[in-house]
Specification:
Oligomer: single chain
Number of domains: 1
Strand content: under 5%
Protein name: Oxidoreductase
Pfam families: Bac_globin (PF01152)
Organism: Rhizocola hellebori
Radius of gyration: 15 Å
Distance between the termini: 14 Å
Shape: globular
Keywords: Heme, Iron, Metal-binding, Transport
GO molecular function, one term: oxygen binding
Order of helices and strands: HHHHHHH
CATH architecture: Orthogonal Bundle
Bound molecules: protoporphyrin IX containing FE
Length: 153
């Protein structure tokens, strides 16, 4: 039996769209993050859903239509994101995953959290002093790694 991609397991594009819609709803109300996203453009939630879908093995639409990794990284330049803001971003996204009905199995949530931890730390690096060149890294791709879908024999 072939193993579905993390994207398929999550529920495909609609699942990531639900996730970011819920998440940015919380962000707008959050005292730590609302000021960071005050100027967010109206397509932001959809763009981040498209990005996440591609990272987890869905269609390469962010690379094809939104400027790929270099564009994403450049959006964080000069923002000087703090550790407190990063942690709040992670916490609200994890709460939103529950609210949006993403799968709750340990394997999916481990892979999801792995990318989000890495990605938010990269966002901080790009937002800070002396970021790496935005076009020096490829589009990240996250598979199941150590924790593929598991069922007892
Ligand atoms: C895994 C972590 C993250 C991912 C996947 C991500 C993804 C993205 C993407 C794809 C964009 C560009 C959207 C577009 O194409 O227009 C973006 C922009 C942005 N990100 Fe992130 N980001 C992450 C972490 C963070 C964190 C931790 C913060 C701050 C606490 C942050 C703040 C912003 C801001 C302020 C923008 C610009 C929004 C706008 O002007 O429309 N990001 N992010």
């Amino acid at each position: 039996m072939s193993v579905p991609s993390v994207y398929e397991w999550a529920g495909g594009g609609p699942a990531f769209e639900r996730l970011t819609a819920v998440f940015y709803g919380h962000v707008r109300q959050d005292p730590v993050l609302a000021p960071v996203f005050a100027g967010m453009d109206e397509h932001h939630a959809q763009s981040v859903a498209t990005w996440l879908g591609e990272v987890f093995g869905g269609p390469a639409d962010y690379s094809k239509h939104h400027g790929g990794h270099a564009h994403m990284a450049s959006k964080h330049l000069g923002r000087h994101i703090t550790e407190q803001q990063r942690r709040r971003w992670v916490a609200l996204l994890m709460d939103s995953a529950d609210e949006a009905g993403l799968p709750t199995d340990p394997e999916f949530r481990a892979v999801f959290a792995y990318y989000i931890e890495w990605g938010t730390r990269m966002a901080l690096i790009y937002s800070g002093e002396s970021p790496p060149p935005v076009d020096a890294a490829p589009m990240p791709q996250w598979g199941w790694g150590q924790t593929p879908p598991w069922q007892p024999e």
